[in-house]
Amino acid sequence: MATDPTTQYWYNSRTGEVEQGLVSPAADRVGPFETREEAAHAMDKLRENAERWAREDAEND
How many domains does the chain have? Predict the structure, then answer.
């Protein structure tokens, strides 16, 4: 069963704020996250993912 997006947390990349539910336009939201804490560290997670994918791409070349 899918989790209700109105109870999940989102990081607003425009304002830098954590929001619960579908408050902002989709273009400004990163997520969903299960906790406010996870959403607060969204940019760290995105950076980690980008670095990992870049390493994997370099290894596959």
Answer: 1
